[in-house]
Design a protein that fits this description.
mainly alpha, Amino acid/polyamine transporter I
Length: 412
């Protein structure tokens, strides 16, 4: 019974934490611009993150390695350090965006000045990281983030364009000139990366260590990866579809975070607004917690320093000393530059530069017969993992040029 409860909570946590500010931004804008023309990228990214989260969880359960243990061991000093620095930088930018996203939602609720809202959001994250036990934090934020399901329910309420209209407009939108083709590619990179952000695997494997996974949890890992992330992608799809069917016909600017909440307000009224804002707030809060902790996990694991919420301060001084620094830096950044949506776009597009090395380390470890024994990657994981890694490398090569050419998606 306890294992069933753990499984259910793990699936809920994966579902509730799948969507963060990056996906809220990119999926809503992409749906309003290209309708369902980018749904294949969401499908591809979901398959990739399911494949690699299962691989990473299996690696951790069998060997006790986290992602940055694998990076240190498999990539070595210089290449491993490059993976660490790039992952820390993009995850820190992501943490800034998440704090800013929390501030925007608090601002909608209270109409307080943005800087005060940012301080409240940052303080909440610091309290959660510092005082809430890992399991309570992980499962509690996942459960509260499940309010995002209101967007999925909104798909089935036809108060605007139906599926036939959306598909028709998708065909029209895909008849693009050169500028719009560049914009299409930019959103493709953004959606792909937002589904497979670096911190997701780092937090997932670190959480497996926090929860003391062994090879007995391999089936739990498989189900959490497939069902949790898979169902979370349905919520992500609903953001894309609702933007195409409900926002675009009304000419609503999809670049505003409040526009995303309208996807639930239009069919359900005030209670749709409440659920949407609660779901968005706790999904973003969960991502702020995960990004902040992932930075500390990366550093401690790469340099082989003690870490974990179960350790006392005297046992893991570096871990505790670094824990709140990402949020403090994130707060300072969004107060100085209060444009969290733009920060989120930079974070997502730049994150693809850090993904290939950490994913490669996971693939190399999970394919190592000596380390994994009978749980080594089978053909599907080997071939599928390499194929997705190739896609990430192509996206990484294209990311910076697309960011520059499209002015972070400004050429509509």
């Amino acid at each position: 019974m306890n294992q069933l409860v753990d499984l259910a909570l793990g699936i809920v946590s994966a579902m509730g934490g799948f969507v963060d500010i990056g996906e809220l931004v990119f999926l809503t804008q992409a749906g309003a611009s290209f309708f369902l023309g980018l749904v294949w990228v969401l499908f591809l990214g979901t398959l990739g993150v399911i494949l690699y989260s299962e691989m990473a969880g299996r690696m951790t359960a069998v060997t006790g390695y986290t992602v940055f243990d694998a990076v240190r061991i498999k990539l070595g000093g210089k290449l491993g350090l490059l993976a660490l620095v790039s992952s820390v930088v993009v995850t820190l930018i992501t943490a800034c965006a998440e704090v800013g996203g929390m501030a925007l939602i608090i601002e909608m609720w209270t109409t307080w000045p943005f800087w005060q809202c940012a301080c409240c959001g940052a303080l909440l994250v610091v309290v959660i990281i510092g005082f809430v036990p890992f399991r309570v934090m992980e499962n509690g934020l996942g459960l509260l983030g499940m309010a995002m399901l209101v967007f999925l329910f909104a798909v089935f309420f036809k108060n605007s364009n139906g599926l036939g209209d959306v598909l028709g407009k998708t065909g029209q939108a895909l008849q693009m000139d050169g500028a719009h083709l560049m914009l299409y590619a930019y959103f493709a990179v953004g959606i792909l990366t937002s589904t497979a952000m670096p911190y997701e695997l780092i937090f997932y494997t670190s959480g497996a260590i926090e929860d003391e996974w062994t090879s007995k949890e391999l089936m739990v890992n498989r189900l959490i990866s497939s069902v949790g992330f898979g169902f979370g992608s349905l919520v992500a799809f609903s953001l894309l579809y609702n933007a195409a069917s409900k926002l675009e016909p009304r000419g609503i600017d999809p670049q505003l975070l409040g526009a995303t909440a309208l996807q639930a307000i239009l069919p359900f009224g005030w209670w749709g607004a409440v659920l949407a804002l609660i779901g968005m707030f706790f999904a973003i809060t969960g991502a702020a917690v995960e990004t902040s902790m992932s930075i500390v996990y990366m550093i401690c694991q790469f340099f082989e320093k003690p870490w974990g919420k179960k350790k006392k301060y005297a046992e893991a001084p570096l871990y505790y000393s670094l824990s709140v620094i990402p949020i403090v830096l994130g707060l300072i950044a969004v107060v100085i530059y209060p444009e969290p949506i733009q920060i989120a776009e930079y974070a997502v597009v730049l994150a693809v530069l850090a993904l290939p090395l950490s994913y490669l380390a996971v693939w190399l470890t999970a394919t190592d017969h000596q380390l994994m024994g009978m749980h080594v990657n089978k053909r599907l994981s080997r071939v599928g993992g390499l194929a997705f890694l190739g896609v990430l490398i192509l996206a990484a090569v294209a990311a910076i040029p697309l960011l520059i050419v499209t002015s972070t998606g400004e050429i509509w």
